[in-house]
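Example record used in the benchmark description.
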Amino acid sequence: MSDEERETRKPARAVRLALGGLSGLLAGCAALAVAELVAAAVRPEAGPVVAVGGAAIDRTPVAVKDWAIRSFGTHDKLVLQLGILAVLALFALALGMLATRHRRPGAAGVLVFGAAGAVAATGRPDSTSLADAVPSVAGAVAGAALLYFLAGRLPAPHRASGTPGRDWDRRAFVIAATAAAAASAGAGALGRALNGSSGRDAVASRDALDLPAPDSPAPAVPKGAQLRVAGVSSFRTPNKDFYRVDTALVVPKVDATAWRLRVHGTGVRRPVTLSFADLLRRKPVERDITLTCVSNEVGGPYVGTARWIGVRLADLLADCGVVPPSRGGPADQLVARSVDGMTIGSPVEDVMDGRDALLAVGMNGEPLPFAHGFPVRMVVPGLYGYVSACKWIQDLELTTFDSYDAYWVKRDWAREAPVKTQSRIDTPKPFARPKTGTVMVAGVAWAQHRGIDKVEIRVDDGPWQDATLAAEDSRDTWRQWSYAWRAGQGGHTLTVRATDRTGRTQTEKRTRTVPDGASGWHSVVVTVE
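Model output (structure tokens):
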């Protein structure tokens, strides 16, 4: 072969590989679009991206999950899904390039990824049928067929003898690729629309719900509980701003009229299955309660207060014949299961010790938002969410800690996790540049079910000074505080610490969130001008 022929073949090969990569991407898009469409007929959670994403969450090391929450906050699930799509795109490109020389192996590669999606879908905790594999399989078959078809219309490689391969019908390829792209877009859009409407009954049931008047209303928030200091958190967190940390890539939409709650297990003398109407017929109570996520770093945002309405969990358990361990009951763990397969284990003693542990149906005067657990979720003051705050709950089983490890315990988190005493500086913000003179330093402190007794501020390495506490709503809510600082010029470090009603002052020792919550003092650095 002459040098001239070699130079001629180089761009031809590059074009063929580029077109192969394009074919792979089109096949990947078609596979996902068809899978999305089929998932609408099965259930949205059976889609391959959601199934693979859920499997990835389940198998991700705790340290990586912790990093993701710290780095991306409530957008961690979106980042995960985008990452999955990026990886799929790279493999689709590679399979498309492979198919330029080997059509069948390239197409078979798409089927392999479909099989992986099917395994992930049927292996999810909330999967109840092999039908969950159908979206991934259908999508893979469509993608493989399209890649095989498009690869057959690419310019063929030159033969070893140097003679040209078959002629390439450029127009036919462009038409086929354009039609495939349009069909994929249409199927994907239709699938998303159908998946979006799959929760129509759930939306209707929420819209039709009038929250019952509480038999025991929440006391009025004391005057002075909300400080008039710019930058301090609102005493009650609006629903739209309330933190959300869970593993659900698709927010479950449960029809309240079809919802059921089963209570059963060790020491349950009278097992029961309740409908939503049954639950609402029980005496509702209303309470302001602060919730905290165990993934909240020192000074972090994953804490908030809402006014919850629901029924007392202890009363329901007592009606089922449950006795706490301190009175001889055989079960020391209450395992709550959600519709998406999450399991959360709470100490029976804690939920039955007289605190306002609730099966909540309302949040800040409206039915629970879907993202926060509609129709029913658990709220237990004083415990981190991963051992108490089960959303979309459908099952309560009494058992023991020795016989069963819930989801997060299997991933190296502690079995029991009372909320640690913590405090946070809300204002001034880190690296703020306030003017000399009086600067209001303010924030919040929390020690649910114990209450906050004292908050102190330290400037640089100076002595601790008492902050002024806002009025206390209850020991189950956070408490605001403020300190009028006479600020001098230069750089300064402000540090806060709190003491709870048991007399325990939060420790200076910094620990990460695993295994039972972060500890340490929050501080901010400012420059006074």
